[in-house]
Amino acid sequence: MSQRALALAVLCAVSLMVVLDGSIVAVALPAIQNDLGFTPPTLAWVVNAYLIAFAGLLLLSGRLGDVIGRKRVFLTGLGVFTLASLLCGIAQDQTQLLVFRFLQGAGGALASAVVLGMITTLYPEPRARAKAIGVYSFTQAAGASIGLIAGGTLTQLLDWHWTFFVNLPIGAVALALAVRLLEPDHGTGPRGGVDVAGAGLVTGGLMLLVYTIVKAEEYTWADGRTLGLLAVSLLLLAGFVLRQAKAREPLLPLRLFRSRAVSGANTVMVLMVAGLFGFQFITALYLQRVLRLDALSTGFAFLPAPVSIAVMSLVFAGKLNHRFGARTVLVTGLSLVALALGLLATVEAAGNYATDVLPALVLMGVGFGAAMPALMGLAMSGVAAGVASGLINTTQQIGAAIGTAVLATAAASRTGSLLTEGTAMPEALTGGYRTAYALSAGLLALAAFVAAVVLRERKAQEVIVA
């Protein structure tokens, strides 16, 4: 294996580890609750503390990579993430675990924000880059499902501490290899500057927005507290946009959005991830609360999805993109995912995994495995800047938060209405999940429409240097 291929393997392994951490803990939550005494509302913050730090710091991390060098930012993030994983594993109370989860999210943001930019630099040739992005996209697309499997296995065979300890050997080996394999880059240096005011506005705005979204499940969207927090977060983000228009060295140059590839791909990413991240949450509940699978069986029930994603993204996606064009492959893949979610919207309380869930997971894996590499390629093709990597990862996390909150609220509302009407619990739960699946299908259909209308293949003159 060449040094370049080894470097790609290290980057993708770290990316997979960070993505896994967003879901691997989900299956361990009941054990964490029993051990550390979390209440149901506070237990959600084991996930939310990570998500808020991760989403809020991605854009700033991408810009830091441009200024001080991506390798330096990557190594720092990897080191922080690995250390925080150790601290999470040995946490003795709720406060310690939540603080260390926040630190873990910050490290994950630093490492993740620059990975895609480093891959595009490693592989400047179009065909080789398409294959490399296919490998990276697999780690992004399949990571959450693999995390559910790993979390169920580690929790059931060992204990919840190992959902964090598993990162230690991976992080240590990756850090040693990254120091040797990754080419040093010095960035633009201090003269390029970092927009400190802009960084504060966007980090505060994004963190508060994600916080508002996750708290909306507790307060409801109509509650004055939710509306107040939402207003403040939007004001901070509006201030960030104004700042970017005037700053000499903006954190996010607004001219990036002149590229249809950048603006269109980020819009598609929000819609796609909103539908699919919420789908995983809803499906895990359906499998456990309606079909009565245990934690380990639930994790393995998702296995066909990452297998299908792997086959499509690693074997066929690059060839399909080269032959038919990224936009065509993206629209087709998103349409297949929308169809799979539409099939899930017909599940019954007396359903069967093999006939009602499995076919949809396979179809979804094929569609997502085709769509994700195409989308990543389009997102990076219109701009020659590391900040684009941080931007596409930020929209991915915002989409995840929005999707989980909206779909969980919709499912709970529908279930509550059915229970009020006298419907039995299994049927009421299933009715709520069907509503969420239908909304997910709608989001994916809208993503396919945006991709078909807005995106187009890049022309050489459209590349924008930030």
UniProtKB/TrEMBL annotation:
Under the heading CDD domains, the entry gives: MFS_MMR_MDR_like
Q: Which domain of life is it from?
A: Bacteria
Q: Where is the protein localized?
A: Cell membrane
Q: How does it sit in the membrane?
A: Multi-pass membrane protein
Boundaries of every Major facilitator superfamily (MFS) profile domain copy: 7-459
Q: Name one Pfam family in it.
A: MFS_1
Keywords for this protein: Cell membrane, Membrane, Transmembrane, Transmembrane helix, Transport
Q: Where are the transmembrane segments?
A: 42-61, 73-92, 98-123, 135-154, 160-182, 194-214, 226-243, 264-287, 299-317, 329-351, 357-386, 398-416, 436-455
**What does the record give under GO molecular function?**
transmembrane transporter activity
Annotated InterPro entries = EmrB-like, MFS, MFS_dom, MFS_trans_sf
Any one annotated GO CC term: plasma membrane
Name of the molecule in the record: MFS transporter
